[in-house]
Specification:
The complex is a heterodimer. Chain A starts with 9 loop residues before the first strand and ends with a helix. Chain A has helices at residues 19-30, 65-75, 86-99, 130-133, 156-166, 189-195, 199-212, 230-241, 256-271, 397-400, 403-422, and strands at 10-15, 35-39, 105-106, 113-116, 122-125, 128-129, 143-148, 172-177, 218-222, 245-248, 275-278, 280-288, 291-299, 302-313, 323-325, 331-333, 385-387. Chain A is α/β, with parallel strands linked by helices. In chain A, helix 1 packs parallel to helix 11, helix 3 packs across helix 11 and helix 7 (199-212) crosses helix 8. The longest helix of chain A has 20 residues, at 403-422. Chain A has 11 helices and 17 strands. In chain B, the strands form 5 sheets. In chain B, strands 3, 4, 5, 12, 13, 14, 15, 22 and 23 form a 9-stranded mixed β-sheet that branches. In chain B, strands 8, 9, 10, 16, 17, 18, 19, 20 and 21 form a 9-stranded mixed β-sheet that branches. In chain B, strands 6-11-7 form a 3-stranded antiparallel β-sheet. Chain B is globular and about 65 Å long. The two termini of chain B are 18 Å apart. The chains are: A alpha/beta, B alpha+beta.
Chain lengths: 423, 570
């Protein structure tokens, strides 16, 4: 496999464009390294509610992720958080807040907020978009949950009733809005979010809300308040209604807040000089003297080898396809063929109860203290390959409410390790 | 059930389905089962079991003018009926091994095409000799078909491969037969609707807890209703159509029926790998058929005797066996997305236990317990298979009529089911065509199976039990590749609204669905379907956090028959 003419050598190839990949790539690019990010498609950020969940359940409810971190790591030595210090976590959160300028994040790892989900469960999350923070049930008074008849992915009555049952001090009541969508019955979250960027549409919704809201109620709406102009849409809507408004993430992809965060981070990466190549897929390592000298990358029918000094592997776990299980039960890491820690053939992969224990859930790479994937002997497979995000095994991100915190902090740490080596 | 117009009402503590409109009754209205406010019912014919046979018996009896009540412990068609591959046999499968079953199959194949067209897709079928099959069998097959009246025509291998390009190119012979596929749930629900329109009372979620007797005469049953209430039903004839569970019901009347439950497992792929039914041209064997039904293909099946029809498991070896069988029929089969695995237990009637369940005849038997056990007013219909359910019902009701001293003739072979009056076969693209008509006017709740909101709400309104799994069977909600990942939260919100449930009840329905789905999904999670399952987990556990739903409000949770089996459901 020869190098294509005109393909410049990169300092770092980042594989994957989710939270972990974008954070690592942006940080490295801002430090002046030549970074190419290669991803099969948009990262999983576009599916995510875009809250930075650090640790919500361990499995007992966690009030302060920062304080709980050390104890959680001690109890779960194979969890990626065993490698993340409280300082590193705080630094990574600070970095993120500074890098998402037009769509501000509030909160910090010292305290979990409890934000309502679309089904009305107060869900722990530490660092959240400012448009959602008002939903924190720890501080919420009476609330009006407003849904749209045309939006099938949000059910205000169900959310309000569950919310009231879950946080019984609260009064929550639903209203169904009749937004002017031109007679269409089925309008998705993203389409609705684009409508909100139109002032006339916003005005009509504000008028409906003014008529529906009572007294001191805050207003919870599905997270569809604009895509690129979320902050101004949210601010103007609050002014027009005269009550605090907060967003509640919708359940089913595409996630509008996830799209906002994805655009922000990808924009930052490009502005820092990083390249982002979508629609390409790593098919294996290019080795030279036991060291990874480059990555073979397939784009459409063509495979090229791109040379690099370091790789950040951030292709995600089972959900994103970074880790694969074939029909025989064999587990593999897709991009570089690294050894995966997972149940072996004949071992239990999944248990019979949905909320039970499923050994395969924690399948992924094992890494050393600087996030280099290691083999069965505990030694790094390559000295210059780092892993970040869900490709690292040991976590149950959705049960723990830890996924974004793991991706953010390991993405940040992988960049840190490379920057140290680069001098 | 697809386009029904019934509505559920509550009547004296008994959930009953009554027709909103009677569609051209062709006989005088039979006497309705008499009900009283204290949970008692009286009828002429009482049917135990809401599978295809039981519902068939209820329809037949009601059409003959008998006042009829049917009880089923779970939802209709959740036992064996809802757990098969959906093949409407031509009879070819049994042409050599079981000629009597073959004759019955082809006769009923013709009848069902006439009366239940809307439930049937006329896919046609092939018998092909694959590399692992005995090449001598093909000649015995064609002779057997000739002897039993099953139309079978040999076609060149090239022609078979042209029709089914994914078929193993190493097949050596191919025969065309009139196999078809049939939607068992839809058939049962339309039969139930028809029975109701003829005056029958259909009571799902009513479990028999006792068979009552007066001396040597069975007088009816006591059932436990959905709210735990007891319902006494008195009947002149009680017909047990409880399939693999027939021995258990008979024992309640101190009668003896030996039914050998034979477990068969099946697996569905995410799309149709073939467009016609493909059978191995071989003696009936494990993994000998691939059935294109609705949007999926189903590989089946196995045959293993089990002790208890409610408690059995699916093993990894059985799954591997089905994958291998699929690969033999359609090379590359194991690379397809596998949605789900499930099993059903066949009711194989046998008075003397044989060594292998495959050696038991697929033909059915009507047992009059007066002759067998000295107990009158009690019949058992068991054995048989889905394809012959109507014939089984006819035989059972003939026997019941004899007990009642009546000679009213059976009319079920000629009168089409509701929705099948026009005798047009179901076509795969029909939902898409309907969707295109309502594109901007109505919400699409399940993208995989193209379920409209209006259709879903109508079905919810009709049912008394707030079960999302029942809705899945009724309208195929969540049956597709995402297995409910996208639609079930929506359905929960709609159910909460339409059924005026408490949020806790709606939440329990969602959690029950997730548990039920998991049973069929987890044994074969791998490849892209595992990715899908993890995305679904992300939605339910990560984004919605359903694990921490408040469930404090009181609720009533019907326990379905499917829910009590340890094996994965369909």
């Amino acid at each position: 496999m020869s190098e294509q003419p005109g393909t410049a050598t990169a300092d770092v190839i980042v594989l994957g464009a989710g939270m972990a990949g974008l954070v690592a790539a942006t940080r490295l690019a801002e430090a002046g390294l030549r970074v190419v990010t290669v991803a099969k498609g948009y990262g999983s950020l576009r599916l995510a509610p875009a809250t930075i969940d650090i640790l919500g359940y361990g499995p007992e409810p966690v009030d302060s992720p920062a304080q709980a971190l050390a104890g959680f790591a001690a109890a779960h030595p194979e969890h990626p958080y065993a490698l993340i210090s409280q300082v590193m976590l705080a630094d990574s959160v600070q970095w993120l807040k500074e890098h998402v300028g037009t769509y501000a994040y509030v909160g910090d790892p010292s305290t979990n907020m409890l934000l309502p989900t679309a089904i009305g469960v107060p869900r722990p999350s530490a660092v959240v978009p400012e448009t959602m923070a008002g939903g924190d049930v720890r501080r919420l008074g009476p609330v009006l949950i407003a849904g749209f008849g045309v939006l099938k992915d949000f059910h205000a009555a169900l959310a309000a009733e569950n919310l009231q049952a879950a946080a019984y001090a609260l009064e929550a009541r639903p209203v169904l809005l009749d937004a002017p969508v031109g007679g269409q019955a089925d309008v998705g979250a993203l389409a609705l979010a684009r409508r909100f960027e139109d002032a006339a549409f916003r005005g009509a919704v504000a008028a409906e809300l003014r008529a529906a809201v009572r007294g001191e109620e805050a207003i919870g709406l599905p997270a569809v308040l604009g895509v690129d102009q979320a902050r101004s849409v949210w601010t103007e809507l609050q002014q027009a209604v005269g009550r605090p408004v907060f967003e509640i993430p919708t359940a089913v992809p595409t996630s509008v807040p996830g799209m906002r965060l994805d655009r922000e981070l990808a924009g930052r990466l490009r502005r820092a000089g990083g390249r982002l190549v979508l629609g390409a897929e790593a098919t294996g390592p290019e080795l030279r003297n036991g060291r990874l000298a480059g990555v073979r990358i397939r784009s459409a029918p063509r495979v090229t080898t791109r040379a690099c000094r370091w790789v950040v592997l951030a292709t995600g776990g089972l959900a994103s396809g970074g880790i694969e299980v074939d029909v025989s039960g064999a587990v593999s890491e897709r991009a570089l063929g690294l050894p995966v820690h997972a149940p072996g053939p004949g071992e239990t992969r999944f248990g019979p109860s949905y909320f039970g224990d499923h050994p395969m859930e924690t399948a992924g790479l094992r890494v050393d203290g600087s996030l280099r994937p290691v083999g069965p002997d505990g030694e790094p497979v390559y000295p210059n390959v780092y892993a970040a995000g869900a490709v690292i095994g040991g976590a149950r991100p959705w049960r723990e409410k830890s996924g974004d915190g793991i991706s953010l902090s390991t993405g940040y740490l992988a960049a840190e390790a490379i920057l140290k080596e680069a001098g | 059930m697809e386009e029904g117009r019934n509505q559920s009402v509550r009547l004296g503590g008994v959930a009953a389905t009554t027709p909103a409109a009677i569609s051209q009754p062709s006989v005088a209205r039979p006497p309705s089962p008499a009900g009283s406010a204290d949970g008692r019912l009286e009828c002429e014919v009482l049917v135990i079991g809401g599978g295809s046979t039981g519902v068939g018996v209820a329809r037949d009896a009601a059409m003959r003018g008998f006042s009829t009540v049917l009880v089923e412990r779970g939802d209709l068609a959740t036992g064996t009926t809802g757990r098969f591959h959906g093949l409407l046999h031509s009879g070819g499968r049994y042409a050599v091994k079981d000629p009597q079953a073959a004759r019955e199959c082809i006769a009923e194949n013709v009848v069902l095409r006439r009366i239940a067209a809307d439930c049937i897709e006329d896919t046609g079928g092939l018998f092909v000799t694959t590399p692992i099959d005995d090449p001598q069998y093909a000649d015995r097959f064609i002779a057997g078909c000739r002897d039993t009246g099953v139309p079978a025509e040999e076609i060149p291998v090239a022609e078979a491969l042209r029709r089914e390009p994914r078929l193993n190119p190493r097949i050596t012979r191919a025969f065309v037969v009139p196999d078809a596929t049939v939607d068992a749930w839809k058939t049962v629900w339309t039969c139930a609707r028809s029975a109701t329109e003829h005056g029958a009372r259909i009571l799902p979620y009513h479990e028999v807890i006792a068979v009552t007797r007066d001396g040597d005469q069975v007088t009816g049953i006591i059932a436990r209703g959905p709210d735990g209430e007891q319902v006494q039903i008195r009947a002149q004839v009680t017909v047990s159509a409880s399939g693999a569970w027939a021995g258990r019901i008979a024992a309640m009347a101190d009668c003896r029926v030996q039914v050998l439950p034979g477990k068969g497992i099946m697996m569905a792929s995410s799309h149709r790998l073939v467009q016609s039914v493909v059978n191995r041209c071989e003696m009936p064997a494990d993994g000998d058929i691939l059935v294109p039904i609705r949007t999926v293909s189903v590989i089946g099946t196995t045959d293993t005797p089990v002790e208890d029809p409610d408690h059995w498991a699916i093993t990894q070896a059985e799954i591997d066996q089905m994958l291998e069988a699929g690969e033999n029929l359609v090379p590359g089969f194991t690379a397809a997305r596998m949605l789900r695995v499930w099993g059903g237990v066949r009711p194989l009637f046998q008075d003397h236990a044989p060594a292998e369940t495959r050696d038991v005849t697929r033909a059915h038997a009507v047992l009059d317990h007066r002759a067998r056990d000295g107990v009158g007013g009690f019949l058992t219909i068991t054995g048989g298979k889905f394809c012959t359910f109507r014939l089984m019902a006819q035989d059972a009701v003939d026997a019941a009529a004899e007990v009642l001293g009546s000679t009213r003739p059976c009319r079920t072979a000629d009168e089409p089911l509701p929705d099948s009056q026009e005798r047009r076969f179901y076509q795969l693209g029909s939902r898409l065509a309907e969707r295109e008509r309502t594109l901007t006017d109505e919400q699409l709740i399940c993208e995989c199976e193209l379920v409209r909101r209006g259709r879903l709400e109508e079905e919810m309104a009709r049912r008394s039990a707030p079960s999302l799994d029942d809705l899945r069977r009724a309208v195929r909600l969540g049956m597709g590749p995402c297995q409910g990942g996208f639609c079930m939260f929506r359905a929960t919100g709609i159910l909460h609204q339409v059924k005026h449930l408490s949020a806790a009840e709606a939440s329990r329905a969602l959690l029950a669905f997730l548990e039920e789905r998991w049973k069929g999904v987890y044994p074969l999670l791998h490849g892209d379907q595992l990715r899908q399952a993890r995305l679904d987990d992300w939605i339910f556990q990560g984004v919605l956090d359903v694990e921490h739903l408040p469930l404090t409000a009181p609720t009533r949770q019907p326990e379905s028959a499917a829910g009590t089996a340890t094996g994965p459901p369909t």
